Amino acid sequence: MRLLEQHLSYAVAVLASASSHLCNRAMRSAQNLGIHLLVLTSLAAAQDIPGKRIPSVNMLPAPLITVTRGKAGTVDLHFRVGGGFHINSNTPKSEFLIPTVLKLTAPTDIVVGKVIYPPGEEMSFAFAPSEKLSVYSGAFILGVVVRPLASVVPGKYAFHGQLKYQACDKAACYPPKQTPVDFEVKVVKGVAAHRKNPGQSPHVHR
Length: 206
What we know:
CATH architecture of the largest domain: Sandwich
Largest sheet: 4 strands, antiparallel
Order of helices and strands: HEEEEEEEEEEEE
Shape: elongated
Strand order of the largest sheet: 1-3-9-6
Strand content: 35-45%
CATH superfamily of the largest domain: Immunoglobulins
Number of domains: 2
Number of helices: 1
Number of strands: 12
Structural class: alpha+beta
Radius of gyration: 34 Å
Distance between the termini: 149 Å
Oligomer: single chain
């Protein structure tokens, strides 16, 4: 009988120890989860601090360009990088840097040719003082070659797209972003070729 009591006491002790261990683990997990949520909340709040400067690239309103159908024309798009920031050019010097790229959706029967990117300005910064990086800062212009097919109905046509870029300041780089791009092109018939009457042969008998 005494031996049975000893076994029962041991079993109760084991169960109590296991229960205490599980409770401690649950408490530690809850504490870790709370700390994790607190960190995430702090990070989210930090992103919304009033006055925090956020890098941006803005597109200036594009003037309406007239293009003759069947012929190519170039549309100049003007952009401006926010003060204190720069973005990688279209041809950065490292494969690890994200280039600036313009992606457009064209109307039916209008072909978007090449995009003409300006050469980047070579600059060095505190995070890479020994390297010259190819960047855009301030104002820069992209040229877009468009060619309406000869069958396009004359009128105004809208183009939509995004300018994808990664901005940096003198100390660090920021996550990639994109700026919406919208502009219109006016397609016209063009001047019809004037046909001259063929000259009369001097050998024609009157």
